[in-house]
Design goal:
The chain is an alpha+beta fold. The strands form 6 sheets. Strands 3-28-1-29-2-27-4 form a 7-stranded mixed beta sheet. Helices cover about 20% and strands about 40% of the residues. Helix 1 runs antiparallel to helix 5 (about 430-479). A hairpin with a 2-residue loop joins strand 18 (about 260) and strand 19. The chain has 3 domains: about 1-80 and about 380-475, no CATH class; about 95-245, Jelly Rolls (Sandwich); about 250-375, Jelly Rolls (Sandwich). The chain has helices at about 1-25, 55-60, 305-310, 405-410, 430-479, and strands at about 35-40, 45-50, 70, 80-85, 90-95, 100-105, 115-120, 125-130, 145-150, 160-165, 170-180, 190-200, 205, 210-215, 220-225, 230-245, 250, 260, 265-275, 280, 290-300, 320-335, 335-340, 340-345, 350-360, 370-375, 380-385, 390-395, 425.
C-alpha cells in the first residue's frame, strides 16, 4: 500500500511539473513589459492601429517580433504587420503655355534651301526669314505655306498632345509629318499627324488634336506633302504630363537629447538599431543666423562585441558609415524666417548611433547638441477582433518570437489593387521615458519571477526523482 502511495505521489509531482511548464511556456500579457489599451472606432471584424515611433524604439526587437494584441481574457488574437507605402504616381496633363508659330514658305526637299533663322543664346527663336531665290518660275509654289515651325523652347514638359486651331484646306483630311529638334540642325522624325474638317447632313466633325510621343523638344516642324499646301494655323497648344508621387508616410520620434563629443561634432544614441529615412534637428532659436554644412554618419554598435570594441578602441572611427550630407540653416528672408533642418538618408541602413560633424567654415550649431528626431516609414498593425473587448497592445519581451501572419492570410481574398477597409484603433498617449523606466522595473520583476518559477519547478522535479529513487531502492531490498 505504501508503494502504491509513493507511485501516485511521484506521478502527480511529475505531471504537475509538466503542466506548470506548459502554462509558463504559453504567452500571457504579463510576460510583456509594456501594455497599452486600444480604443476601437468603426466596424470590424478587422481593426488597424498605427504603430507610434515610441513603440518601435521601446520594443525589445527592432523587427517588432515581440508585438502582440490580447483580448479581455488575456488571449492573443491573430494580427499582421503592414508597412505603409507611397501612393501610386498620378499623371496630370497640363498646358505648356504660349508658343510661337512661324510659317515655312518653301518645299522641304533634298537640296532645298533652309530658312534663315536667327536665335538667341538660350535657344529661343528671334526671327525667321524664308530664303527666296532671285527669280521664281511660273507655277512654282515658293510663296505658299508648306509647313509650320513651332518654338516650344519655353516648355519644360514631355510633349504628349498637339492641338491646332486651323482653317482652310477645304473638307476632308489633312496629313503631315512631325519632326523635332533641339538645335534646328538635326531633326528627328516623330511620326505623322492627321486633322480633319468634315460635314454631312448638318453634322460636323472636327479633328484638331494629334498625339505626340511624350518626349521633350525645343522645336517642332509640321511638314505637308510637297504637292500640297498647309492649312492656315492660327494658334497652337502643346500639352504635357507631369507625374506626381505622394511621399511615403513617415512616423517621427520624440526629440532625443545628444551630446557634444568635441568642437563641431555631436552624437546621439538610439535605443534600437533602426533603418532611418529622415532626421530633423531642432536648431537653436537663440542664434539669429545659422548656416552649417554638415555630414551625418551612423553605425550599429550592436554588431560589435565589447571585447572587439575594447581591442579596437583606437580604430572606432572605422565603424562609421556616411549617411547624408547637406546644409542646415536658419535665415531671415523677406521679413520671415526660412530654415532647413532635415536631412534625408537614402541608404536605409540600420544604425543605433548617429554622429553629426559641422564644417568649421560655417556658423556651426552651438556648444550644445541640438535635439534630434528620427523618422521611418510608418507601419500599422491589423488584427482580427476575436474574443471580447477591451483589447491591448503588448510589447517588450526579449524571448518573444515573431507571431504575425501575412495580410492575405489574416484577411482571405485580400487584393492590393482594392484593399479592404478596416476599422480604426487608437492607442493611449505613449511616454517613452516612463515606458523605459517601467520596462526596466518590469524586467527586474519578471526576472525574479522567472527565477522563482524555475527554482520551484526544479525542486518539484528533483523531489519526484528522489522519491522514485527511494522506491527503487526499497523494491531492490525486498527482492
Amino acid at each position: 500500500m505504501m508503494r502504491a502511495l509513493f507511485v501516485r505521489l511521484a506521478c502527480s509531482l511529475v505531471v504537475g511539473a509538466g503542466l506548470s511548464t506548459s502554462v509558463v511556456g504559453k504567452e500571457q500579457s504579463a510576460d510583456f513589459g509594456q501594455r497599452l489599451p486600444l480604443t476601437l472606432q468603426g466596424d470590424g471584424p478587422w481593426w488597424g492601429v498605427e504603430i507610434p515611433m515610441g513603440v518601435r524604439m521601446s520594443a525589445s526587437h527592432a523587427d517588432l517580433r515581440d508585438l502582440r494584441v490580447f483580448d479581455a481574457a488575456g488571449e492573443s488574437v491573430p494580427f499582421a504587420l503592414v508597412t505603409d507605402a507611397a501612393a501610386p504616381a498620378t499623371s496630370t496633363l497640363r498646358d505648356g503655355g504660349p508658343v510661337r508659330l512661324f510659317p515655312l514658305r518653301m518645299p522641304v526637299s533634298a537640296g532645298a534651301a533652309q530658312p534663315d533663322i536667327r536665335i538667341q543664346q538660350n535657344g529661343t527663336i528671334v526671327e525667321l526669314r524664308t530664303a527666296r531665290p532671285a527669280t521664281v518660275a511660273s507655277g512654282d509654289q515658293q510663296g505658299k505655306v508648306h509647313g509650320w515651325l513651332i518654338d516650344a523652347s519655353r516648355i519644360d514638359l514631355p510633349l504628349e498632345r498637339l492641338q491646332l486651331d486651323w482653317s482652310g484646306g477645304g473638307e476632308g483630311f489633312q496629313s503631315f509629318s512631325i519632326e523635332a529638334s533641339d538645335d534646328l540642325q538635326r531633326w528627328n522624325h516623330w511620326g505623322s499627324g492627321q486633322i480633319a474638317h468634315m460635314s454631312f447632313e448638318g453634322e460636323r466633325l472636327d479633328v484638331s488634336e494629334v498625339k505626340l510621343p511624350g518626349q521633350k523638344a525645343r522645336y517642332l516642324r509640321l511638314l505637308w506633302p510637297r504637292d500640297a499646301a498647309a492649312v492656315d494655323v492660327k494658334s497652337v497648344r502643346l500639352l504635357g504630363s507631369t507625374r506626381t508621387r505622394s511621399p511615403t508616410p513617415l512616423s517621427w520620434s520624440e526629440p532625443i537629447a545628444g551630446r557634444l563629443e568635441k568642437e563641431g561634432e555631436y552624437r546621439w544614441q538610439l535605443p534600437q538599431s533602426l533603418p532611418l529615412q529622415r532626421v530633423r534637428f531642432a536648431l537653436s532659436e537663440d542664434v539669429a543666423y545659422t548656416v552649417a554644412p554638415v555630414e551625418l554618419s551612423g553605425r550599429d554598435v550592436t554588431k560589435t562585441t565589447p571585447t572587439q570594441a575594447s581591442r579596437r578602441r583606437e580604430r572606432q572611427d572605422s565603424y562609421w558609415r556616411p549617411l547624408a550630407r547637406g546644409v542646415l540653416y536658419r535665415l531671415p528672408v523677406d521679413g520671415r524666417t526660412v530654415q532647413v533642418d532635415e536631412l534625408e538618408i537614402p541608404s536605409f541602413e540600420p544604425v543605433n548611433e548617429l554622429r553629426l560633424r559641422a564644417d568649421s567654415r560655417g556658423a556651426g550649431l552651438g556648444d550644445q547638441a541640438p535635439r534630434l528626431s528620427v523618422a521611418m516609414p510608418s507601419s500599422r498593425l491589423v488584427f482580427l477582433a476575436r474574443g471580447k473587448a477591451p483589447y491591448e497592445l503588448a510589447f517588450g519581451n526579449e524571448k518573444a518570437r515573431a507571431a504575425d501572419l501575412p495580410l492575405n492570410v489574416l484577411i482571405p481574398g485580400y487584393n492590393e489593387d482594392k484593399p479592404p477597409v478596416w476599422g480604426r484603433a487608437s492607442l493611449a498617449p505613449f511616454n517613452m521615458a516612463k515606458a523605459t523606466a517601467d520596462a526596466q522595473s518590469a524586467a527586474i520583476k519578471d526576472a525574479s519571477a522567472r527565477d522563482w518559477k524555475k527554482y520551484s519547478l526544479w525542486a518539484m522535479l528533483l523531489l519526484g526523482v528522489g522519491m522514485l529513487v527511494l522506491m527503487a531502492g526499497s523494491l531492490i531490498r525486498k527482492k
